Amino acid sequence: MTQQSTFMITAVIRSDQLTNLQRLLRSMNQAPGFANPRNRLLPYWQMQQLHVARFTILQANTNDDIRDYGVEPSDWPPTLCFIGDVDGAADLFLAELVIRAEPGLREIFSHCEDFESDCDNLLQWLHDHSRKPSANYINWRGRTVLQAREEQALSVALRARLNDLQQLQGDLRPRQLRRQLQAFVTEEIAARRLRLSDPLPAPAGWHLRNLINLVGVPLALLLLAPLMLLASPFYFARLRQLEESDPENTQRPERSHLQALVEQEDIDVSNHFNVFGQVKPGRLRLFTIKMGLLLLDYTSRHIYKRGYLTRVQTIHFARWVLLDNNRRVYFASNYDGSADSYMDDFINKVAWGLNLVFSNGVGYPRTRWLLKGGAEYEQKYKRTLRRNQLPSESWYKAYPGLTAYDLARNSRIRAGLEAPDPSDSEIRSWLALL
Amino acid sequence: MTKTTDIDYEDIQGLVRFGHGQLSASAFLLLKIADLEAARRWLNSAAITSATESTPAPQSALQVAFTAPGLRALGLAEDLVEQLSDEFVSGLGGDTNRSRRLGDTGSNAPQHWRWGGSAETTPHLLLMVYADPTRLDSLLTSIREPQFEQAFTQLAELVSRHNGPREPFGFVDGISQPLIDWQQQVSTDLHQRDRYSNRLALGEVLLGYRNEYGLYTERPLLNPLDVDRDDALPDAEDQPQLLDLGRNGTYLVLRQLAQDVRGFWQFVDDQAGADPQQREQIAAAMVGRQRDGTPLIAAAGEAIDGSEPSDRQNHFTYARDPHGHGCPIGAHVRRANPRSGDFPVGVDNWLSRLVRTLGFGRRHHGDDLVASSRFHRLLRRGRIYGVELTPEQALQAAADDSEERGLHFICLGANISRQFEFVQNAWCASSKFAGLPSESDPLLGNREPLLNAAPTDHFSIPRAGAPARCIQGLPQFVRVVGGAYFFMPGIKALRFITR
C-alpha cells in the first residue's frame, strides 16, 4: 500500500494585501473557485501525486458569536491556508512543489506577513508554516492518483470494447467475453495505450508508525479507563448542564454570503467544503472535541479506510484542524454531490457523528448526551453550518467527473480483470460493472 | 407526540387535497399586477376553492399562488417575504447557480424561457382555473370582467384542454403520490422509520405542521400586536404567542416542459430495430413502468405503510432489485422516487441498526447510496398540454406537426430545496444517481457532458448474467420552456396579504 499524507500551510495575510491576494488566487481558476490545472502559478497538471488541493482564506466571520458565552473574542487576522492530499510523504511533495513552482509560490506567499522577498529557503519557510490535522480521513487508503487515472482509462476502454464486441458478435458467453477483453487489454498495454502500474510499497517506518498507532491508542485509553470511569459521572453531569445552557446561534446566513458559496458549487460532480468556527469555551468542551477527533482519526486510519465513513460514501478527503491555541477548528472536505444533498446525507445518516465533534463548536444546535439532537434540527443545523462555512479561493481535484464511488468501481473492474481464477458468477458480476 | 389542533380544511386551498381530476380542463394564468388597489380588491373577493369536501363535486375550481415579486407588489412587508424560503425568494429562473444545479443549462437555460427567465417575464401571481372542458372558455370569460382586466396584465396563459391519465409520451402518470397524514398519527421520530413508507407527514406538504423531522419548517410569523385584527391569521402551533402567515400554505413549483414525443418514439424504435415488442420493452425500461402504469417490479411481499396491497401500481419497492435487473437503476420513476427507507434492507432490530449505523454490513456494492425517500417527496399536480399524439402516430413519418405538447409540471411542498430541488438535482439531473457511472435521466436529462468530457447521453439496462445493454446517444426529449416558484397561501393568509 502506498503511503499518503496531507499538508497544510498557513500564514497571516498582510493587512493591505487581502484583495490583491484574492485576485491573484482567483486568476488560477477556470470557473468560480475551480482551478485550471494548467494555471500560471502552480502547474497542478505536472503533479502526479496530488489528489486535491485548495487555497482558502480563513476569516473569522462569526468571531462575535462567542460573546454569547460571555467571552471576548480573540483576534484572528485573515490567514491564507493552502492544503492538499498527496501520495507519498508530504516532505517530498513540498520539495517537488518548490522545484516546479517556486516563482508562483513566492508570488502567492509574498502577500503574507512574515514572508520576506529575500527569504532564501522557501522549503524551510513552508515547513515552518505547516500545521498537522487533529483528524484526517481518506476515502480509500493507498489508492494513488496514478492508479485512479489508469483505472479510469481502463474502464473507459473496456466499456467501449465491450460495446463493440456486442455489436459485432451479439451476446457471448461470459467467460469467453472476459477472455477477449483480457486479450484486448494485454494488446493495449503492449501498445502503451493503457497502463496498469503496481502500487509503490510504503516505507517500513510508515508501517511501524501505523502499527504503533493501532495498538498504542487503545492501550493508552485502556490504561486511562479506570480514571475516566471514575470521572464520568462528573463529566456527564457537567456536559448535560452545558448542553442545556449553551447558547445556540442559528441566525440565517446573509444572502450575499450564501451566494458566494453556491457560486462555486456543482461545477464538477464533487465539491469542496470549508467550515471555520470557534470551540466553545471551557476545558470540558476542549477535552470532548479532542477525544472526538482522536476517535475519528483512529477509526479513519484503521477502520474506515475502504470507501465509507460510517454510512457516508461520498467523501474523498476530509480533515479537522485545531488552530489558534485550540480556540478554533477548521474542517475541510471534498465530497460528491451538491451541498444540500451532502448536508442531508449527514443529517439522516450520521447526525450522531457530527454532534460528537461539532457540538463543541460555538452556536451549534442543542444536543442531548452529545449524540442526540444537534444536526437532527435540520434547518437550524444547515444555517449554522452555512454561516460558518467559507468559500475556497481556488480548488483542485485530480480526477474531475469522477466520484469516490466511480473510483471504487474502477478498482473493482481492474481487480476482476486480473483475478486469477474467477467463478462463473464472479465473471458475471464483473461484467455487470461494465 | 403532542396532539395537534384539528385541520381547518376551509383555510387550505383545495389543490393541496384534491387534484381536481374530474375537472379535466384547466387554464393557468400568469399575471402581473397592473393596478394594486384593483388587484387587492379582486383577489380579496375571489372565490378561492378550499379543501372542504362537497357533494356534488364543484363545477369549477379556482386557486391562487404568488411569486416573491408578487408578494412585494402586493405590499407584503419585506421582513415577512424574507422569512419565506431562500429558494422562493430568489426564484427558479433568477440564479445561474440554481440553474446549474437543476440542469437548467444549455437549451434548458432560463434565458431561453418564454416566461420566468427574467424579471420582466416572471409573473406576480398564478391564477389556476379548473373546469369541465365544455365550460372552461365561458368560465374564463366570466373571470375576465373589467375589474379583473384593470387589475392584471397577462404574461401567458397555459391551457390544458383535456387531462387524461397519460402524459404525452403515452405512459400513465401521476401514480406515485404520497398519502398525506392529515390526522398526524404517524410518528416522525427519526429513529422509528426504518423502512419505506408512503404516508407523509402533513408538515412536508403544508407549512405550520410537523414535518418528517418532527419539526416546523421556517415560515413568516407575526406578532399579534402588529396586526389590526387578531383573528386574521391562525396561531403558530409551535409558538402560540405568534400568528402564522405560513400555516395551511405551501410552495408550488411550476415548470413548463415541452416533450418531443416524435423524437422519443422514433429513437426508441430505432434502438429496437423497429420490433414493436422490443420497442415497448426499451421505452418501459426508460420510464420504469409499462405504458399502462404497471411497475416493472413484482408486488412487495410485505406491508408498506400508506399503500394498499391491492394497489398493484404502487405496492412495491426496489428492495429486492438492488442491481436493477427488474427495473433499471436509472429509470425515470426509480430516480424520482427510489422508495428507500431510512435504512437499507435488512435492518430489523437494534443490533442490525447499530451495525448499519456504523457503516458495516452492506450487502452488495452500491448498497445504501440513495437517500431516504420520505424527506424528498413531491405532491404532484401537473397537467398535460397540446394535442395528443399516440406512439403509433409518433412513429409515422412526420406529417407537418409543429404543435408543441408537454407537461405543466406542478408540485407542492413545504421545503423547495429539500423536496423539488433535491429530487431534480440529486436524483434526476445527476449522472451519478445511485452510483451510476455517468448517465442522466433517460427522459429529463439535458445530455450535457461532465467536466472530464464524459458523455451522459446513454442509458443502461442491467441484465442478470450478462453485461448491461447500453443505449447510446440519447437526444434530449424534454425541454424546459418556462417556470417559477410560487407560494400558495392558506385562505386566511391570502385575505391578510390582499387586505
Write a brief caption for the model:
The complex is a heterodimer of chains A (434) and B (499). Chain A is an alpha+beta fold. Chain A is built from twelve helices and 13 strands.
Description:
- The complex is a heterodimer of chains A (434) and B (499).
- Chain A is α+β, with helices and mostly antiparallel strands and 434 residues long.
- Chain A has 12 helices and 13 strands.
- Chain A has a 5-stranded antiparallel sheet. In chain A, strands 1-5-4-13 form a 4-stranded antiparallel sheet.
- Chain B folds into 2 domains: 261 residues, no CATH class; 179 residues, no CATH class.
- Chain B has 15 helices and 15 strands.
- In chain B, strands 9, 10, 11, 12 and 15 form a 5-stranded antiparallel sheet that branches.
- The radius of gyration of chain B is 23 Å and the shape is globular.
Largest sheet of chain B: 5 strands, antiparallel
Radius of gyration of chain A (Å): 24 Å
Total domain count of chain A: 2
Total number of β-strand segments of chain B? 15
| CA distance, first residue to last residue of chain A | 26 Å
Give the assembly state of these chains. Answer: heterodimer
- Rg of chain B, Å, rounded: 23 Å
- DSSP helix count of chain B? 15
Describe the main β-sheet of chain A briefly.
Answer: 5 strands, antiparallel
DSSP strand content of chain A: 15-25%
What is the secondary structure topology, with strand pairs?
The complex is a heterodimer of chains A (434) and B (499).
Chain A: E1 4-12, H1 18-26, E2 29-31, E3 34-35, E4 50-58, E5 79-87, H2 90-109, H3 122-128, E6 135-138, H4 145-169, H5 174-190, H6 204-245, H7 255-262, E7 270-278, H8 283-302, E8 315-323, E9 328-336, H9 339-358, E10 367-368, E11 372-373, H10 378-388, E12 389-390, E13 394-397, H11 404-418, H12 424-433
Antiparallel strand pairs in A: 1-5, 2-3, 4-5, 4-13, 6-8, 7-9, 7-12, 8-9, 10-11
Helix pairs in contact in A: 2-3, 4-5, 4-11, 6-8, 11-12
Chain B: H1 14-17, E1 25-33, H2 36-45, E2 60-66, H3 68-73, H4 78-82, H5 86-90, H6 96-102, E3 125-131, H7 136-143, H8 146-151, E4 152-160, E5 179-181, E6 199-201, E7 221-222, E8 243-244, E9 250-259, H9 261-271, H10 276-287, H11 332-336, H12 350-357, E10 379-380, E11 383-385, H13 391-395, E12 406-413, H14 417-429, E13 459-463, E14 466-471, E15 478-488, H15 491-497
Parallel strand pairs in B: 5-6
Antiparallel strand pairs in B: 1-3, 1-4, 2-3, 7-8, 9-12, 9-15, 10-12, 11-12, 13-14
